[in-house]
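worker-3 :: picked Adaptor related protein complex 5 subunit zeta 1
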Amino acid sequence: MYSHGSESLIKQARDIQEAELKKFYRRLAKLLQGKELGHEAMDSLQRLHLILSATKFTRTADLSSLCAQLLRSLESRQSDGPTHSLMQTLPILNTIITHSPECLTEDHLTLLSKKIVDWLRYASITQGGGASSGGFFTGPRSRQPVPTAELDGTVSGDFFTVLCVGQGFTDDQWMNVYSFSMLRHWLLTYHSVPSDDRSEVDGSVVSMVSATSSSSRLLPPKERLREKAFQYCLRLIEQSDRKALKRTDTELQKACLVEAVCILDCVCVEDTSLVYRTFPCVKALFGRLSSDLTFARVLLPIAQFYLNHGEMATVDCESVWKLVFGRFPAELFNSPFLAHELLRFLRLNLESLQLRVPEYTRSFPNLLKFLAWDSPAVVDDFVDLLPSLVTAETAVELLHTMLDLPCLSATLLLQLRSTCSPISEPGGRGLLSLDAFRSASLRGLFLYLLRTEAGSGDTIDRLSTLHELLAEAADWPRVVQCAQTVPVLLHIFFSAVVTIADEKLSAHLILVMLERSSLLLNIPTYIKEIHRVFSCHLLRLCKLRPSLVVDQSHELLEFAGTTANVYSKAEIYTHVVWALGEYLSVSSDSRCSVRLITSCFEALEAVLFEITSSAPPPGAACPVPRVITTLMSALAKLASRSHDLIPRVSLFLSKLRTVTRGGSVAWCTDEEDLVAIVMRGEELWSLLKTPGVAQSVLTPGFQEILLQSPLLLIEKCSIIRVHQKHKKLAYHSPLNN
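worker-3 :: tokens ->
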């Protein structure tokens, strides 16, 4: 958060009017014409920096003339002049470049590149201020120049870099530090600005000149900048291998390594001839750091380098991906920084990873640990990444894994807690789940959840046992957060899977949904939401491939014929019944026989008779009215395709009217719901009195036919009034029950 004073300055910068801004630019331009920049000029440059930073998304200002003037002032002030003006000018130029890169000309690029080269490579190697030779009467003339030192305390044996230390810095050393801080951004800007190519040289020639010449002054400005950036970064990598005397310097080494590898990647992208000179150094760096996960922030840029250039250099990248997709998520899932950086790396390189890194899609059990641990922080990343993890080979296991994410969340907590003893709840009771986690006989259940890659089986046999062991975790905040995320991602999963699923995979997914509807961690809101998602996408799969209903009729009928599902899984049960009534038809699949229709009719009839002839089981609420009306409609649809069944459904519907005349019934306590159920029964009963009309109206897709050509109905049947009365009610989806 900003302080009150900072917020006030930012607000002033954002609220500045256009006229005032132009006046400010004119005054600054005059100040920059002076031989030296005074305090007023320095203050104005700082204010310009603030204005540009605070309004970069909301304001477009023409900065080309100001940029040119700043560059001229940079050129006219030699490195032995006042450092404070240069140190103010360079960051402002960097901000202007970010804000308006189009204001740079080729001459501007050349000028600033030359300056950066000089500051990077030719800064002095003695400490600022010098050192006294001792004595009371020691004066400035007796001070001896002292060389800069390395972080391990030894004298620097090469050119100055940001990792050199001393009691003080000279002006050009400060400019070295400033230049390095903006080098990567400048290289990217330089690369994106079109060049007149007055000095285009073949890459191999440039590389040869760079490698063999004692001076790179023969190179054109752009190539010379790359070469000096390359040398500077190699020097930093060498310096980072020294053991720093101070802990803060160790962190500085890591930060500089990150920047150095990123810059090397940048110059190799621009000039591929540098790849062969760079890879030995980067490969050695990876070998030195890969066993120490405290260097994870450095290892990710190295992975980026391997991804971008490994194929060209024909190097084996397997060890890199084992680290990135293996140890990182498995051991650092609770590091917010690594989670952010790794998921950002994946999003930025998604296409390349899918094409060239097979380990990526197999690593989803490991990557999902970030989501299981801190769902709110990373859910947006997985919204982008999840479709890329869905393939024909991974879809089923991925679905199971996502459904068990709350279990994974609990298991990760137990994994961390298992190192602490004893663990107990606030009331003093020990955690049974932790005892189970430590039990050798149950360890396999948890190890499956903690697996690092796919391919060891779609799921485990003892899921219900696992859910019982983790029952006490159902109200843990981290587990609840994770459970709230899963339905959103399931929608994304199914939207992706329908684009690649063939009939076999679609059938498998339907079976998984039916099976897993009763195998979920016992969080009531979670179960309800998962059933809702399953209902939506089971219907979607059936609509895309109606033949699935015939293929999976045995499993669907087994589910629909289980009366207990009416009470515990009303949402998904309603949609399964609707799909059976809608798509068990010759018009959907020529294999649909009268025998199959009759079998389905009898199963649904038995359930409907049972739930409307007795009170609900102890502890269960009355059946949802929509379940009853969907069952009645499904029976009517099936009877219209096998007319021998019409008397049976008509008899039930007529009995329903008789039974309800006496008032409330045990299976429906709401009067309005009962009236609606009876009205639906009467409408279907009236429709079935004319089997020919019923068969037409209850045909799959009847609503679409009506919308396209209502006249077809007139041609098919003269009882127009019946059609108009039933056209909305007969084509009856769970969504409008």
